[in-house]
Amino acid sequence: MTKDAQRILVVMAHPDDVDFGAAGTVASWTDQGAEVVYLMVTDGDAGGFDDAVTRTEMAALRRDEQRAAAKCVGVEDVRFLGYPDGRVEATLELRRDLSRVIRQVRPERVVMPSPERNYERIYPSHPDHRAVGSAALDAVYPDARNPYAFPELLADEGLAAWTVPEVWMVGGPTPDHYVDVTGTFDRKLAALKAHASQTSHMEEGSLEQMLRGWLSGNARAAGFPDGRLAEVFQIIDTA
Fold it and tell me: Are 173 and 113 in contact (CB under 8 A)?
């Protein structure tokens, strides 16, 4: 595992995915001085609960919400690819777009959804999540590091090949790394509350209760002391 990564790229399918899965960990990284970049493949235009809001309005709203949520955990650089929410596929086009951003950011770590279905908890296994995980892992290996993959990125945009040393996957069935986020939980909660179009319909306190239930279960699985909260990942050596 790469220690003290200074440039980290988080690739997710929708606004709020990173905040449910990894915002507490991201806050700990930015506290340590790391530069974290968010890349959302869709604008989340298929989300929300208000029929009076058009899909174009929802996309703009969710972009703004993700930018506000990012600030809660110390992230300023938030990017969007604009793929259609609910219809993401692991295409060559998506692999190229992800490879482009990897070569731009040149991260030492990439966080992404797992491409594997989790049968114990179905919610992380949204088709968009799995498609983004598959395409992002392919972009890390072999695409972004291979100067002859998508040669137009170098020829037309001057983006040289880049090798990502490690990947942290979220939501998969076989996590192997636990991060204690007790000290950053309040910022994770604030980030999720920033996604008002997705969370404001919940009863007061229910979001926090739900999160504490998930994260305390993770902490118990890790053998952490009572009262601790944890986020979980599967780490893959991609150097």
Answer: no
Q: What is the DSSP string of 139-178?
A: IIIIITT-TTSSTHHHHTT--------EEEEES-S---EE
Select from 76, 80, 77 the least CA-distant residue to 15: 80
Structure confidence by residue, pLDDT tens digits, 174-227: 999 999 999 999 999 999 999 999 888 878 899 999 999 999 999 999 999 999
pLDDT tens readout for residues 109-124: 999 999 999 998 888 8
Q: Pull the structure tokens for residue 29.
A: 């990284």
User: What Cα–Cα distance (Å) separates residue 28 from each residue in 13, 36, 178, 216?
Assistant: 22, 11, 13, 18
Rounded (10°) CA dihedral 43, 234, 68, 196 = 70
Residue among 22, 70, 65 at smallest CA distance from 43: 65
SS3 204: coil
Q: What global pTM score does this model have?
A: 0.96
* Integer angstrom CA distances of residue 211 from 19, 26, 66, 92, 234: 11, 16, 18, 35, 20
User: Exposure string (b/e) for 168-206, b if CB count within 10 Å is 16 or more?
Assistant: bbbbbeebeebbbbbebbebbbbbbbbbebbbeeeeeee
Residue 11, SS3 per DSSP: strand
What count of Cα atoms within 13 Å lies in the side-chain half-sphere of residue 39? 24
Q: How far apart are CA 36 and CA 45, in angstroms?
A: 24
Within 10 angstroms of residue 117's Cβ, the number of other Cβ atoms is 15
